[in-house]
Write a structure and sequence with these properties.
It is built from 20 helices and 6 strands. By secondary structure, the chain is of the alpha/beta class. It has 2 domains: about 1-195, HUPs (Rossmann fold), CATH 3.40.50; about 205-380, Hypothetical protein af1432. The chain has a 6-stranded parallel β-sheet with strand order 3-2-1-4-5-6, with helices on both faces. Helix 15 packs antiparallel against helix 16 (about 300-305). The radius of gyration is 23 Å and the shape is globular. The structure holds fe (ii) ion (FE2) (2 copies). One fe (ii) ion binds near residues 250, 283, 307 and 308.
């Protein structure tokens, strides 16, 4: 028998998921599909949706025969690597062939995964191509090379799936709108009965969650950044509440692994330099985590996203968080006093000085410089 493994958070499961699975069965690419519901890893807190709720909804939406909900990763708990899950499924079903179901974006990111080589060599794949990925020459060349180099068995299913997202479902529920067209009736009923996705996320909830995730030292830094960001916001006219939240949350992903940072930013088109640097990527990953988990505002998202490298023509809030991170009272290095003073008088010039100091440090320690940091500096440099 061919068993497909379909991994996801399924928060909640929707018709896009079930349609994909049914098409895989109809096209004889698998006889049975296990919907592998992920556990909730420490860096992803889904407000008011426990793993158990996500599993229950998945189970209720499936027939339980050819499409089955699986709680292996939930029972195991903690972080699950695809390689380990597939290995466990192979052991559980020794006479069957295990196929891992993935989209084109996941396929592109596979080289970064845990045990990537063995993963590609030891298992079979169903690549669900929803966006004509093979018409993109870059993807086509990459995929063909992967398949050849690792002797991969990949079945390709080209389909157009209904345009539905779990995020949209959660947002509609919060607004009291119906989700009939988007998910199974039983899932809709389950959401209503258990009052899921109704909680309004306040800044306090976000800050409390961050408090529970960061080390004491990092937390102290975040508190300091939040306070300085409010001071600067008052001077330069940014929203003080947003400055406090962005200051507190800017390093939300600072203590997760590089692999987790890459996972959170999978949907972004990023170059290799940034993908391999925790010092840069944590800012983007933190912003994506906050957006996905708490649906933070665009302005707070951008302030977190650009807090390490800045960008040309930053908003006042972005500048405030960028500088607060740099000058908070816990920072202590040569030249900091001058930059600190300048930050309260001329924030644009303080940005130039701060970047100059960072670049000097990077050069002295023989480290790479990210070109976007230079672009930010040049933009704010008064000629
Ligand atoms: Fe940071
Ligand atoms: Fe920071």
């Amino acid at each position: 028998m061919k068993i497909g493994i379909f991994g996801g958070t399924f928060n909640p499961i929707h018709k896009g998921h079930t349609y994909t699975a049914q098409k895989i069965i109809e096209n004889n690419l698998a006889d049975k599909i296990l919907f592998m519901v992920t556990a909730t890893p420490p860096h992803k807190v889904y407000v008011d949706t426990s793993a158990q709720h996500r599993f229950n909804m998945t189970k209720t939406a499936l027939d339980g025969e050819s499409l089955v909900a699986c709680d292996f990763e939930i029972k195991k708990g903690g972080k699950s690597y695809s390689y380990e899950t597939l290995k466990a499924m192979q052991e559980k079903y020794p006479d069957d062939e295990i196929f891992f179901i993935m989209g084109a974006d996941m396929f592109m990111n596979m080289p970064n995964w845990y045990e990537a080589d063995r993963l590609r060599k030891e298992f079979s794949y169903i690549l669900v191509d929803r966006s004509d990925a093979f018409e993109n020459p870059v993807f086509k060349e990459f995929a063909e090379k992967q398949i050849k180099d690792f002797n991969m068995k990949v079945e390709i299913l080209k389909i157009k799936t209904p345009d539905i997202s779990s995020t949209e479902i959660r947002e509609r529920v919060k607004k009291g709108l119906d989700i009939k067209e988007m998910t199974d009736e039983k899932v809709e009923k389950y959401i209503a009965e258990n009052k899921l996705y109704r909680q309004t996320v306040t800044d306090d909830i976000i800050i409390d969650t961050i408090k529970s995730k960061l080390s004491e030292k990092r937390l102290k830094h975040c508190e300091n950044v939040a306070k300085v960001a409010v001071e600067l916001a008052r001077i330069y006219g940014a929203d003080e509440k947003a400055a406090y939240l962005a200051g507190y949350a800017h390093d939300a992903a600072k203590e997760i692994t590089l692999e987790e940072m890459n996972e959170l930013t999978l949907h972004l088109d990023l170059d290799e330099h940034i993908r391999s640097s925790k010092a840069l990527l944590h800012a983007l990953a933190g912003a994506c985590y906050l957006k996905k988990t708490f649906n933070i505002s665009e302005e707070v998202y951008n302030a977190c996203f650009y807090h390490t490298m800045g960008r040309c023509d930053m908003t006042v809030l972005e500048k405030v968080v960028f500088m607060a991170d740099y000058i908070e009272p816990g920072r202590n290095f040569e030249g900091i006093e001058e930059i600190r003073e300048l930050a309260y008088k001329d924030i644009d010039q303080a940005i130039v000085k701060a970047i100059d100091s960072t670049l000097t440090h990077l050069m002295k320690t023989n480290k790479k410089i990210y070109y976007k940091t230079v672009l930010t500096r040049n933009f704010y440099l008064k000629q």
